[in-house]
UniProtKB/TrEMBL annotation:
InterPro entries (alphabetical): Kinase-like_dom_sf, Prot_kinase_dom, STRAD_A/B-like
Subcellular location: Cytoplasm; Nucleus
GO cellular component, one term: serine/threonine protein kinase complex
Domain Protein kinase: 61-375
Highest taxon in the source lineage: Eukaryota
Subunit structure: Component of a trimeric complex composed of STK11/LKB1, STRAD (STRADA or STRADB) and CAB39/MO25 (CAB39/MO25alpha or CAB39L/MO25beta): the complex tethers STK11/LKB1 in the cytoplasm and stimulates its catalytic activity.
Protein name in the entry: STE20-related kinase adapter protein alpha
Polar residues composition-biased segments: 329-340, 396-410
Source species: Lates calcarifer
Keyword Cytoplasm (UniProt): yes
Length: 428
């Protein structure tokens, strides 16, 4: 599809400008397409502008290196320096000429929501504009990467319980806000949780978000199945996958939060390697994943050599006890010990069980979960605690002190530091 045809069909550029997504004053909404009803119903809510602090001009950004691709290779993600301040940012550049009509509508909905939302636990879009035939989306660079990156590179058997509590609390604050605004996220997972250099936890992945607001009123349920959702199937709730007449609501995100909690604690995603049909049957039959520790793994398995026998499904075989226990979910430090010779707190187990209730009516809201006893262990601000808890991982800013970024060795150091990040899945 050509860019000229795309513009002539009035699918995106002008309507996005009408939504002030390109830093221009709206000239009147002549075309109402994606999220039309939610726009009508939310006009009474306060709108705090998250954009405008970064210039909508490609010349204001120095592209440093490519750190990822996505959207069927239509999107390139660059680390860049914002010239006026020297601040590092991530730039998502999307080739508009090659986008299909569906992709354009998909992006339009995401950008509308990013304009509407303003919350410290949601990744902000600092500027959105068109440079030649590319859509540029400017976001802060999250120097720790995603929670999934941290699991893959440093915490392969899962994070400590205290670290997880900070991450989950940040996620819940974002979900509380999203649900209050009348939306369902539908893509809650560790790769959509980004952590900044100062320990700020931010949710991203707004592409699949869906509004419950219709014709000025909040609908009780959703029947829409998220587009481009193949990668997120293991995290989706049974009711979303089932697609029946009962539909689903924001409590489906709470189920996904429970799966993410298991992902952070166990180092792998429950149901990840199951065929889609088997996964659906397991979820519909009430099979519940759990935290892997000395209370859920049989003693005979804990006495065996280290293995990832539970990694395929993430489903617990039943309660058990034995072996050396490590309190607060700290993984075993012994090279010969089982990686799950640890004991998570009863509050953590109870939290996950609440989130993963088969019946969505029994799942608490995000607001209720924020007050769960599991979070009473948090005594400090994330900015003080997370950088310490994530050691020996350091945020990708250390290259600045050793080499100038403009030098070949400085750029090589930067690229080396970025090489472990799975940016394709960040969904900025």
């Amino acid at each position: 599809m050509s860019f000229l045809r795309w513009v002539s069909e009035k699918l995106s550029v002008e309507s996005l400008r009408d939504l002030e997504l390109f830093g221009e004053q709206a000239q009147g909404l002549s075309h109402r397409k994606a999220h039309e009803d939610s726009q009508e119903s939310l006009t009474s809510l306060p709108r705090r502008d998250t954009m405008g602090s970064f210039l909508p001009d490609s010349g204001s950004y120095e592209l440093l290196t490519v750190i990822g691709r996505g959207l069927d290779d239509l999107m390139t993600v660059n680390l860049a320096r914002y010239r006026p301040t020297g601040e590092h940012v991530a730039i998502r550049r999307i080739d508009l000429e090659s986008c299909t009509n569906d992709m354009v509508t998909y992006l339009q909905g995401e950008l509308h929501v990013s304009k509407l939302f303003h919350h410290p636990s949601i990744l902000p879009y600092k500027s959105v504009f068109i440079a030649e035939n590319e859509l540029w989306v400017i976001t802060p660079f999250m120097a720790y990467g995603s929670a999934r990156d941290l699991i893959c590179t440093h915490f392969t058997d899962g994070m400590s319980e205290l670290t997880i509590s900070y991450i989950l609390l940040g996620m819940l604050k974002a979900l509380e806000y999203i649900h209050h605004m009348g939306y369902v996220h539908r893509s809650v997972k560790a790769s959509h949780v980004l952590i900044s250099a100062d320990g700020q936890v931010c949710m991203s992945g707004l592409r699949s978000i869906f509004s419950l607001i219709r014709h000025g009123q909040r609908a009780k349920v959703v029947h829409d199945f998220p587009q481009y959702s193949v990668k997120v199937l293991p995290w989706l709730s049974p009711e979303v996958l089932q697609q029946n007449l009962q539909g689903y609501d924001s409590r489906s995100d709470i189920y996904s939060l429970g799966i993410t909690a298991c992902e952070l604690a166990n180092g792998h995603v429950p149901f990840k390697d199951m065929p889609a049909t088997q996964m659906l049957l397991e979820k519909l039959n009430g099979t519940v994943p759990c935290l892997l520790d000395t209370t859920t793994i049989p003693p005979e398995e804990l006495s065996m050599k280290p293995s990832r026998s539970g990694a395929d499904s993430g489903i617990c075989e039943g309660p058990g006890a034995g072996g050396v226990r490590h309190s607060n979910g700290e993984p075993s430090t012994s090279s010969s010990g089982h990686p799950y010779n640890r004991t998570f707190s009863p509050h953590f187990h109870a939290f996950v069980e609440l989130c993963l209730q088969r019946d969505p009516e029994k799942r608490p809201s995000a607001t209720t979960l924020i007050g769960h006893p599991f979070f009473k262990q948090i005594k400090r601000r994330p900015s003080e605690a997370l950088p310490e808890l994530l050691r020996p991982v350091s945020p990708i800013t250390s290259f600045e002190s050793s080499q100038p970024q403009d030098s070949p060795s400085g750029l090589a150091s930067l690229e080396s530091g970025l090489s472990h990040l799975e940016v394709d899945d960040w969904d900025f």
